[in-house]
Structure formats: C-alpha cells, structure tokens
Amino acid sequence: MVSGGLIIAAPASGSGKTVVTLGLLRHLTNAGVAVASAKVGPDYIDPAFHAAATGRPCINLDPWAMRPRTLAGAAASLTESSDLVVCEGVMGLFDGATAHDGSTADLAALGGWPVILVVDVRAQAASAAAVVRGFVSHRRDVTVAGVVFNRVGSDRHGKVLCEAMDHALPDVPVLGCIPRAEGLQLPERHLGLVQALEHPDLESFLDRAADLMAKHIDMARLRDAARPWSEGGTAGSSWPLPLLGQRIAVADDVAFAFRYTLVLEGWRCQGAEVLPFSPVADEAPADDADAVYLPGGYPELFAGRLADNARFLNGLRRAAGRGAPVFGECGGYMVLGEGLIDAEGHRHAMAGLLPLETSFADRRLHLGYRRAELQVSGTLGHAGDVFRGHEFHYARTLREGPGAALFTCFDAAGRGLGTTGLVAGSVMGSFVHLIDRES
Fold it and tell me: CB within 10 Å: which end of the chain, N or C, has fewer?
C-alpha cells in the first residue's frame, strides 16, 4: 500500500488543531502505526511536540518558502518509512504569507493531501455547518474530507452538530466530536508555545490527549481519508541549504532549539557529519569541526549563563580563529555579537565575533517571511543568490556594524526592508531563519 497523508487544519488559530494533532500522533504511534508528521509553515515549536509524540523527527513543509521540488522531496522522505503522514496546518486554512500565497490550502492543493477541518464549537451549534460549508466550497482544488468538532459541550450539543451536517453537507463526514477537556492547554510565551523539552509533564499530557482522541474520533475513517502526495518527488532530490562544511558543529539545547529538520537532514545527505553540542552546558564546538552553526532559540533567557560559559565562548572564538565558517541565525546571531541586554536591563557579554548589540529591555516585534539576497560570496553561495526564510523575534538592535551586510531583504509582498546581518571574516549571521533556496 502506498503511504498517504492528510492535513489537520482549522478555520482559525486557537481552534485546538495542535492538541488534536498531538493526540492523533500519540494514539496512532501507541497503536503500532508507522506515522510520520509534518508542520505547515516556519514554526519550530510545534514540530518538537510532534517528535515527542511519535519518536520521529517532524518536517516543516512551507508552500511559500520552499520550492515545489523541495516540498515533493520532503513528502517523499516522509512517506518512504511510514504508513501515514499527519500534517498540522498553520493559522486558518486559507491564511498565508499574503492573501493569495503560502497557506495550508496551497499545500493541500499542491500535494493533493485532503484536509480534516477542526472546528471550535464552543459558541455554536447548527451554525457550525455553515462554517464548514464555506470552507468546503471556498476552493475547488482543496478537498475537505471530514470535520472534527472540538470543545463540544454535551452529547446533545454533539447531536445537533451532526444533524446539521447530515442535512447541509451529507458528503462530508463528522469524524468526531471532542468534548471540552480541562488540563489540555499548552503553556505559551512570547514566541509561541513553551518548548516541548520545557513542558513539565509532557508524556502524561500526550497520553491524555491520545486517550481523548481515541475515544471520540473514528480512526478507521480518518485513516481511510489519507491520499498519496500527487506531485512526483524523490527523497533527497533537493536540499535546502549549501553545506557549511563536512563536520558541522550544531548548537543543540534549550537555548538553541530553533532549527529545521530538513536543513540538518540535507547536510547529512550531502555527506556532512552533524556534531551536536550544548552551549548552556558550557560545551564547546568540537575542535575538529570545520563549521559551526548556531540556530535560533531563547538565548535571552539564558544570557547570564551563556556569558559565564568560557569553554563555549572560547570554542567559538577558536573556530573563527582557524577560519571555520561560523553561522548564526536570530538567537545564534545575537550570541555572536558583543552584548545582549536581557528583559531586566542587564547587559551580558557575548562572543564578540560580530559588531552587534541587541536588547530585550524594550521589546519590538519583528515578524514575517523574507526573501534574502546574499550580498557577499562565501560559504552560503555567490553574491546575488536568493534564499527564502522567516523572521520572528522581539530583540531591538542597538548597533549592527560597521561591517559588510550579509543580506538585502524583502518581505513576502516584495517590499524592500534594506540590509540585514553581518559578515566578518568566516563569521556571519542575521535575524533571518533560512528555509530554502529560491531557485
């Protein structure tokens, strides 16, 4: 049997699709189904919860930031070793980078995976059928294969919902009515949910979510709705980013957890060895690493500890001193700078490899997709090469430079945002999380 996939989507953020997705993933895993997972868009936090639920890495699929062949190759890698792919959507089904580009619906249309719509019915009864009708009919190239009503108040409430669907949309099955459940809310902070590895009782949470979904969702009908990815692709046919080196030291801990599985897999499949290390635990990048990658995360929450971790900071300086590429994104970029001011106004000295000062004392949101045009030839490619990525942080830049800029950036609508990032010798970084090459 060819492995298929389906997408868990919703009319709006906050409908409960993450908890539904996690419960499905944990239940199917416990039931012995080889289930893989994906997340639409640039989110880092939800994929870590997916991985905890299944024991498998979760791959981001981004219809705005990824080339079609990258998406097809990623879908192929997901289906090669699984019986089912469960993909969680982002925001509302039709919400994207712009009004017409980058939505969960775009991914569904491109790959042919059907949508299971999760509808929050706390304040609705029969009117929910009208909401579903609108989503079913809005785009002919998107298939809504079923609906799950979430936060249902009572058996009577569920019966009214099902009767309304039977009357209005008899061809769209109600796959489940999930009752309101206490204790299944995920804690949040300024960049979204608190990370999976910080959740105080994650295994219990996942098991309770799994039990709830198993009791109230028709799993057989849900699995029958899955369909193969319609666009041909081969796993490994396209990788997002060029190699930084053959032995790449990657910061990997609670402060540096925002990295894309597909980027690391791409490096491995191009022959590189990935060497994790923990800056928070004062580990230095391996001395024989020929490149260092500092992904984003929450270094501002650990700034004091990082500033005191001499082995880590000196290891970065040694790598730069021997000419190894040292690349930082967002939080990693800030740590490569000279100083980071935390939310309480305390300044912490960082690695001092780039002329950069950032502050969280007076926070300012920076959010959105980015087209990033490389300004200098080097490890990432030739000047003029274009990447697509995402920016999401609250840091205020107090000083950036002097020095050569790494990128010229544009938002998803094509508006120019000026230059960003810095290059100093083999050290480089910016606030942009790179997702894929543009061509």
Answer: N
